[in-house]
Amino acid sequence: MKKHIAKIVQFVSQTFCHAPMVLLPDRLQKKCFINGLIICIILLGSCNTKKDLIVGTPDFNIKGYTVQDAQDNFGNPIKEVVFQFEGNADVISFFSGEPLKEYAYKDGRIIGIDAVNVSFEYVADMGDGTDPTWKQLFVMATTNFDGTVTEEGEGWIDITDRFNIPMAKDFTTRTLTSADISDLLVPGQPLYIGFKYITYPRSASAAYTTWDIHEFKISVETLLGSEIIYNQRVAAFPLYHFGPDDASDPSRTPRSTSTTSRLRFRANVLAANRPFTAGDWAIAPPIVVDNEINLGPDRPVGIKNRIDPALSNYTYVYDKPGTYKATFVATNITSHSEASVVKEIEITIP
Q1: Are residues 246 and 275 in the same domain?
Q2: Does one domain contain both 18 and 73?
Q3: Which residues span the domain enclosing 256?
Q4: Does pTM surpass 0.70?
Q5: Which residues of 189-202 are buried (b: 16+ CB within 10 A; e: fewer)?
Q6: What backbone phi and psi angles, to 5 degrees, belong to 206?
Q7: Where residue 135 falls among pLDDT bands split at 50, 70, 90?
Q8: Where are the beta strands (DSSP E) in the chain?
């Protein structure tokens, strides 16, 4: 310390009191010397303060953990995990290792699509005199729909066979069916799923088959579970008619109807329209699903701040049994420096 002070005195004397080409009275020389000395001491103190703000890596470790039985606020049994620590750090954050809470995905998580499922319930009521060989209901798909429909359905793919829908004569109960349509997705393009109902020319009888569709849903399956992206109960199918239409008569209403609880297909019954092929399309709004979903980074939970006392243990409740990699990130931090250490432990919840 004495060595530093001597150097400061020498520097001040040479810099502030003996500047070349300047002759100062003794009184002013003394004042310059004192002012210069104060400035240098302040600068030296500043340097020492910044040095003091440089932190080292935290001395922090996980000693172990225990699993104990407990009850939540409603009296339900739960499993509490108590982590024990040694050492300390200014700040400690925690990744439990559960889905969306994993340290391995702290910089971002991208997951793939496992399936895009279409599901619905169907039932048919075949009127007496209806031709039992008629196949009237079709499930269709396209990536290019301009708002117009035809009997043939140009540009649409028939995917009815994926749903194993029987002939109307072969069943009488409401039945659930589903199928994966992820292979039909085209990146960046909308996918339309629709139903096509056809009634063929009838001359001998006005009979027809009514088809009802309930609980239509499109859902995306990933490792995180299932997410519904279209639900008939939220938005009813728009209907599109082709061929002669009983509703063209001002005294008649549309034969087929669509609500959030039921999609119903029915045939024309007016004698003038029965000799001709006619029908309806019901087309769900387009879906756009990428092959991958960016969920962003997994986020930790902060369990200690700088102002908190040293943490000797931490308790966490896991919702499901299994094996998890719990991660603690311990950090020492100042306004000028930061140093962290990552500690992991594999735990098993019975």
Answers
A1: yes
A2: no
A3: 112-292
A4: no
A5: eebbbbbbbbbeeb
A6: -90, 5
A7: very high
A8: 59-71, 77-88, 91-95, 109-112, 115-126, 137-142, 157-158, 175-180, 192-199, 209-222, 225-231, 239-242, 257-258, 263-265, 278-283, 292-296, 301-304, 313-317, 322-333, 338-349
